[in-house]
Structures are given as structure tokens and as C-alpha cells.
Amino acid sequence: MTGQKGEAEPFTPEPATDDATVHETLADQAVQLGLQHRAAGTTPFGDAHHVYWDQGSARLLSALDVTSPTTSDNVGWRQHLVSAYCDALEAPETGDVEPGS
């Protein structure tokens, strides 16, 4: 899963399109990437907070081959991809007991 110098390798590029199926495929890839990083104990784009609010989101989107400029028309699904990755990265393992439970 990691390339040279510990950097994450991108998934197979998807064509740039407004097709909902492609968007969901990218979201599924973001989730799988988050789960893989969580299982490996690595955060190549930074912790979830950094990915949500800083340059980590650009690095994540680039790894998913989403490289077109952000516009008002595509910002929603880009945020969806970032959220899907971060939710998977931070999700508790099945069977884990969360504090206060």
C-alpha cells in the first residue's frame, strides 16, 4: 500500500465526471483507503483533523486522482470523499468498547 519513502500509492484513476456511480466508486475507495490506513496504523495524509481542515484533504484527493479544481459545483462530493476517508480512519473496531459505554 505504500510507495517509495512511505508515501501512499494512489488508487487506479477514475475519469472526471459528474456520474453518480463514479462518485460512489470514489467514495468506496476513500473508505477502503481509510480502513487500510487505520489497520496499518499509518496516517500518510495526516490525522483526521488535518485531512478535514488542512492540506491533508488535497493530498487525499490527489491520491484518489481527483485533481480538477474545486468549484461550487463539486465541493459537496469532494467533502463527501474526505468525510468517507476520515470516518473510516477513525471508526472504532467492531467489538471495541468506547469510553463511557
Structural overview:
This protein is mainly α. It has a domain at 41-91. 50% of the residues lie in helices and 0% in strands. It has four helices and no strands. Helix 1 packs parallel to helix 4. The chain starts with 19 loop residues before the first helix and ends in an 11-residue tail after the last helix. 22% of the residues are buried.
Give the overall shape: globular
Using the CA coordinates, give the radius of gyration: 14 Å
Q: Alpha-carbon distance between the termini?
A: 34 Å
What fraction strand?
under 5%
Q: What would you call the structural class?
A: mainly alpha
State the order of secondary-structure elements, H for helix, E for strand. Answer: HHHH
The residue ranges in which pLDDT falls below 50 over 5 or more consecutive positions are 9-15
**What is the number of beta strands?**
0
Mean pLDDT: 80
Largest sheet features: none
Helix amount: 40-55%
SS field, number of helical segments: 4
